[in-house]
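Structure ticket #2291
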Amino acid sequence: MGAPLSVFNRVVMVFREPLLGFSPAERVSMADERIRTLLRRGGAGEVGTQANPQGIGVTIDGALVFIVSWNDPDTLAGETVDAAADRAVEALQRAIAENGELRDPRAMGRAIALAFGATVLWLVLLWGLLWASRRVGAALLRLAKAKAERVRIAGVQVLEQARAIRFLRGVVIAAFWFLALLITYGWMGRVLQLFPFTRPWGEHLEDFVFDTGGYIAGAIVGAVPGLVVAVIIFLVARFAIGVLSAFFDRVQRGVVRVGWLDVDTVRPTRRLVVLAAWLLALAMAYPYLPGANTDAFKGLSVLIGLMVSIGGASVVGQALSGLILTYNRTFRLGDYVRVGEHEGTVVELGMYQTRLRTGFGDELTLPNSLVLGAATTNYSRGLAAGRFMVRANVTIGYDTPWRKTQAMLEEASRRTPGIASDPPPRVFQTALSDFYVEYRLTAWALPSDPSARAELRSMLHQNILDVFNEHGVQMMSPHYLGDPDKSKVVPPSRWFEAPARPRTDGNTPAAAGEES
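Resolution: structure written out below.
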């Protein structure tokens, strides 16, 4: 870094290397003492240079003050020894002139008067800024109260009056403090430059503003070509996505037919293609974005990628499960399915979750990974549109002929409204257990509404109970322990005991009210 030589608060030279056995700090001490001694003599204070074997010597009234050695210039900035010497001469000359100004009463009086005037002007500007901010703030608040309730989209109020007022008040306060700090910064820099001792500080403040503004302006100008290229890339991507979206719309309407693309897969395929197009556009535009090559931007990109890779593993797994379910066509919207222990109508097949609506008013949200890993039964697959399969399981003792049991189950299905007659219901003997025979009734139903399906299954179970009770056949579920003295059946005469009432849907059996 080196040791700086300051004369009257102004940096004249920075010694970076030892010279003639003296360290940079010792060179600063000797040069400072030499300058003070020469100035106390009261000469003209002319600063110049002279040749020296060790570099370039800087003089005051012909007397050597210090030497700019060959190793003192800032080589990283491309500075030469001549340039460093010229800069030191100029800075020392200004420091000597400011020292003379500091000892001039008239110059100091003029500086004090100008500082007082600048301070008064600063206070006036602050007062005017405060007055203007209050007037502008009041006008904006009146406008917000008058217009906030009128801003509506599709009949919905977009802006809340209280929130709009708080936002505008915050904007006005922030603008006031920004302008006040800017005015204060300018006033401080000008006042400091009026006095010789503090003039370097004021110049530093002013240079900081101009350097920062120039850097920002240069960065903006330098980023414009890259931004233009990035915008062009995104516009091309948007155009391509528009063309592909029109194609997918035609496929979804059935105008265009593609073997691997149909109504069920067109929506997720559209999402994948759009996502891939935007990711490709982002990858192409990335090098042209402002700051893309900076270490901070690269570090942020790595951090975001690491967070996504660690925290998004389950999200990616859910999305892949959703894509597998969609492209395997495990089920479609409107299908009546059973996933593990859950049963209902598919109302949404999303990328991350599947929603089922049961006939009891419940809506189940199942993660796609759970759906993919569970056994799924589709009761609507392979049937005409709008139909689904209904099953009922019963266990009947061996003393009841299987033909009779089959006929009773078929009779119960015929009594149930909504059960299709074509194809006819079928009865299967699924197991010959130790104490009873297991039967399964399989029928096809018409309703598509989930609640209607639940009601239909309930009515089918009711009719099975009625038919078996009519014929005095005892069901053996859930467990068989032994033959009772009397069969556990309900005779028709007891079907409508209080508080039960006869059904009004025309499905009351003809044997109701009679003993079996």
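Closing remark: The longest helix spans residues 199-253.
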